[in-house]
Design a protein that fits this description.
56% of the residues lie in helices and 0% in strands. By secondary structure, it is mainly alpha-helical.
Length: 110
């Protein structure tokens, strides 16, 4: 799945931590840098490498917005849509972006 050089980098990274699972965020970041996103196969690879379950790795990937679960475009736009942000007009900003770019939330332009 990954090159031997990549696996060496990950092994060196994991050895910097007292417990392999503690390296999960950094290992996931390396996987994302290598592939551009984190797919289920990569989650399973990380789980096996760190001695944890794929479900636990997926929980981390799905919790943090910095990890991408599908291929992304060159530019990634995020807009806060919490209640406080919406009270300050974020929903109008989202509507403007959708109209200007001709896409819906989660889509990518050509």
């Amino acid at each position: 799945m990954f090159s031997p050089e990549f696996e060496k980098r990950v092994d060196a990274l994991v050895q910097r931590y007292p417990e392999p699972k503690a390296a999960m965020l950094m290992v996931l970041w390396e996987v994302q840098k290598e592939k551009g996103w984190i797919d289920p196969e990569s989650e399973a690879w990380v789980a096996e490498r760190l001695g944890t379950s794929p479900a636990q790795v997926h929980g981390v990937v799905s919790f943090y917005t910095m990890y991408k679960q599908r291929p992304m475009g060159r530019h990634h736009i995020q807009v806060c849509t919490t209640l406080s942000c919406m009270l300050r007009g974020s929903d109008e900003l989202v509507d403007h972006l959708k109209s200007k770019l001709g896409i819906e939330e989660g889509e990518v332009t050509e």
